[in-house]
Design goal:
With 172 residues, this protein is an alpha+beta fold. The chain has helices spanning 3-27, 37-47, 79-82, 105-108, 118-138, and strands spanning 53-57, 62-64, 67-69, 74-78, 139-148, 153-162, 165-169. It is built from 5 helices and 7 strands, in the order H-H-E-E-E-E-H-H-H-E-E-E. The chain has a 3-stranded antiparallel β-sheet with strand order 5-6-7. Strands 1-4 form a two-stranded antiparallel sheet. A two-stranded antiparallel ribbon has the order 2-3. The protein is elongated.
Length: 172
Protein backbone atom coordinates (compact mmCIF):
# COMPACT_ATOMS: atom_id res chain seq x y z
CA UNK A 1 0.00 0.00 0.00
CA UNK A 2 1.41 3.40 -0.92
CA UNK A 3 2.03 6.04 1.74
CA UNK A 4 -0.71 8.23 0.28
CA UNK A 5 -3.23 5.35 0.41
CA UNK A 6 -2.16 4.46 3.96
CA UNK A 7 -2.59 8.06 5.12
CA UNK A 8 -5.97 8.36 3.37
CA UNK A 9 -7.09 5.04 4.87
CA UNK A 10 -6.26 6.23 8.38
CA UNK A 11 -8.01 9.57 7.74
CA UNK A 12 -11.10 7.88 6.27
CA UNK A 13 -11.44 5.43 9.14
CA UNK A 14 -10.97 8.12 11.74
CA UNK A 15 -14.59 9.12 12.25
CA UNK A 16 -17.10 6.37 11.48
CA UNK A 17 -15.98 3.66 13.90
CA UNK A 18 -15.45 6.00 16.89
CA UNK A 19 -18.89 7.55 16.24
CA UNK A 20 -20.46 4.07 16.16
CA UNK A 21 -18.61 2.97 19.29
CA UNK A 22 -19.67 6.08 21.22
CA UNK A 23 -23.28 5.64 20.14
CA UNK A 24 -23.11 1.94 21.15
CA UNK A 25 -21.78 2.95 24.57
CA UNK A 26 -24.56 5.50 25.06
CA UNK A 27 -27.23 3.15 23.65
CA UNK A 28 -26.30 0.31 26.00
CA UNK A 29 -26.25 2.66 29.02
CA UNK A 30 -22.91 1.44 30.38
CA UNK A 31 -22.07 4.10 32.96
CA UNK A 32 -20.83 1.41 35.34
CA UNK A 33 -17.86 0.66 33.05
CA UNK A 34 -16.57 4.21 32.61
CA UNK A 35 -13.46 3.51 34.72
CA UNK A 36 -12.31 0.88 32.23
CA UNK A 37 -12.38 2.80 28.96
CA UNK A 38 -10.22 0.40 26.91
CA UNK A 39 -12.49 -2.56 27.61
CA UNK A 40 -15.59 -0.40 27.21
CA UNK A 41 -14.39 0.72 23.76
CA UNK A 42 -13.54 -2.86 22.78
CA UNK A 43 -16.96 -4.05 23.86
CA UNK A 44 -18.56 -1.15 21.98
CA UNK A 45 -16.92 -2.53 18.84
CA UNK A 46 -17.78 -6.17 19.57
CA UNK A 47 -21.44 -5.74 20.48
CA UNK A 48 -22.30 -4.28 17.08
CA UNK A 49 -19.32 -4.04 14.71
CA UNK A 50 -19.61 -1.39 11.98
CA UNK A 51 -18.29 -3.82 9.37
CA UNK A 52 -20.49 -6.89 9.26
CA UNK A 53 -18.68 -8.85 6.55
CA UNK A 54 -15.18 -8.89 5.16
CA UNK A 55 -13.45 -10.87 2.44
CA UNK A 56 -9.97 -12.28 2.88
CA UNK A 57 -7.74 -14.32 0.56
CA UNK A 58 -5.99 -17.36 1.96
CA UNK A 59 -2.19 -17.21 1.93
CA UNK A 60 -1.90 -20.97 2.20
CA UNK A 61 -4.06 -24.04 1.81
CA UNK A 62 -6.15 -24.87 4.90
CA UNK A 63 -8.81 -27.37 5.90
CA UNK A 64 -12.03 -26.22 7.59
CA UNK A 65 -14.57 -28.84 8.70
CA UNK A 66 -13.10 -31.43 6.32
CA UNK A 67 -13.20 -29.05 3.34
CA UNK A 68 -9.83 -28.28 1.74
CA UNK A 69 -9.48 -24.63 0.70
CA UNK A 70 -6.61 -23.79 -1.67
CA UNK A 71 -4.19 -20.89 -1.28
CA UNK A 72 -5.65 -17.79 -2.92
CA UNK A 73 -9.26 -18.81 -2.25
CA UNK A 74 -11.67 -16.08 -1.13
CA UNK A 75 -13.03 -16.52 2.36
CA UNK A 76 -16.02 -14.50 3.55
CA UNK A 77 -16.07 -13.70 7.25
CA UNK A 78 -19.26 -12.46 8.92
CA UNK A 79 -18.06 -10.35 11.84
CA UNK A 80 -21.59 -9.59 12.99
CA UNK A 81 -22.25 -13.28 13.58
CA UNK A 82 -18.78 -13.99 14.95
CA UNK A 83 -19.21 -11.25 17.56
CA UNK A 84 -22.19 -13.19 18.98
CA UNK A 85 -20.47 -16.60 19.09
CA UNK A 86 -21.33 -18.26 22.42
CA UNK A 87 -18.24 -20.47 22.18
CA UNK A 88 -15.98 -17.39 22.17
CA UNK A 89 -17.78 -14.73 24.20
CA UNK A 90 -19.13 -15.29 27.72
CA UNK A 91 -22.31 -13.27 27.31
CA UNK A 92 -22.56 -12.38 23.60
CA UNK A 93 -25.98 -10.68 23.60
CA UNK A 94 -25.17 -8.19 26.36
CA UNK A 95 -22.76 -5.27 26.60
CA UNK A 96 -20.34 -6.79 29.12
CA UNK A 97 -16.66 -5.84 29.34
CA UNK A 98 -15.77 -9.33 30.58
CA UNK A 99 -16.80 -10.84 27.22
CA UNK A 100 -13.21 -11.43 26.16
CA UNK A 101 -11.80 -8.43 24.33
CA UNK A 102 -8.66 -10.40 23.52
CA UNK A 103 -10.65 -11.38 20.42
CA UNK A 104 -10.25 -7.90 18.87
CA UNK A 105 -8.09 -9.40 16.12
CA UNK A 106 -11.39 -10.66 14.74
CA UNK A 107 -12.35 -7.07 13.90
CA UNK A 108 -9.01 -5.41 13.16
CA UNK A 109 -6.69 -8.22 12.09
CA UNK A 110 -3.36 -9.03 13.69
CA UNK A 111 -1.65 -5.95 15.17
CA UNK A 112 1.29 -5.93 12.72
CA UNK A 113 -0.64 -6.40 9.48
CA UNK A 114 -4.15 -5.41 10.51
CA UNK A 115 -6.31 -2.36 10.06
CA UNK A 116 -4.24 0.84 10.08
CA UNK A 117 -7.10 2.67 11.79
CA UNK A 118 -7.13 0.41 14.86
CA UNK A 119 -5.11 2.78 17.05
CA UNK A 120 -6.84 5.83 15.58
CA UNK A 121 -10.24 4.43 16.61
CA UNK A 122 -9.09 3.81 20.18
CA UNK A 123 -7.33 7.18 20.49
CA UNK A 124 -10.26 9.23 19.18
CA UNK A 125 -12.84 7.33 21.22
CA UNK A 126 -10.73 7.39 24.39
CA UNK A 127 -10.10 11.14 24.03
CA UNK A 128 -13.85 11.85 23.69
CA UNK A 129 -14.93 9.71 26.64
CA UNK A 130 -14.09 12.33 29.33
CA UNK A 131 -16.31 14.82 27.48
CA UNK A 132 -19.17 12.34 27.67
CA UNK A 133 -18.52 11.34 31.27
CA UNK A 134 -20.80 13.92 32.92
CA UNK A 135 -23.37 13.65 30.15
CA UNK A 136 -23.69 9.88 30.64
CA UNK A 137 -25.22 10.58 34.05
CA UNK A 138 -27.77 12.94 32.54
CA UNK A 139 -28.72 11.13 29.32
CA UNK A 140 -31.36 8.48 28.79
CA UNK A 141 -31.84 6.78 25.44
CA UNK A 142 -35.35 7.23 24.11
CA UNK A 143 -34.92 5.45 20.77
CA UNK A 144 -32.62 4.61 17.90
CA UNK A 145 -32.69 4.13 14.14
CA UNK A 146 -30.23 1.64 12.69
CA UNK A 147 -28.33 1.66 9.43
CA UNK A 148 -28.33 -1.91 8.25
CA UNK A 149 -27.15 -3.53 5.07
CA UNK A 150 -25.22 -6.74 4.43
CA UNK A 151 -21.82 -5.09 4.95
CA UNK A 152 -22.22 -2.08 7.26
CA UNK A 153 -24.24 -1.59 10.43
CA UNK A 154 -24.49 1.16 12.99
CA UNK A 155 -26.74 3.60 14.73
CA UNK A 156 -28.01 6.06 12.15
CA UNK A 157 -29.79 8.23 14.71
CA UNK A 158 -29.68 7.92 18.48
CA UNK A 159 -32.37 9.78 20.39
CA UNK A 160 -31.47 10.77 23.92
CA UNK A 161 -33.18 12.86 26.54
CA UNK A 162 -30.91 15.28 28.31
CA UNK A 163 -32.40 17.15 31.23
CA UNK A 164 -35.49 18.76 29.70
CA UNK A 165 -34.61 18.65 26.02
CA UNK A 166 -34.49 16.12 23.15
CA UNK A 167 -31.27 15.78 21.15
CA UNK A 168 -30.21 13.68 18.18
CA UNK A 169 -26.79 12.06 18.10
CA UNK A 170 -26.15 11.44 14.40
CA UNK A 171 -22.84 9.59 13.91
CA UNK A 172 -22.48 9.84 10.13
Amino acid sequence: MSRVMAKFSIFATGHETPANVICNIIYHDVKKYRDNSAKMISEGIRIDPPLQRIIRYLREEIEIDGQLLPAGARLGLHLGLASRDKMVFKNPEKFDISNGQEQLELFFGQPKAGCPGRHVVFQITRSLMPLLDDALDEWAVSGAEWLSNPDVRGILKLYVQCRDCNLKCVPA
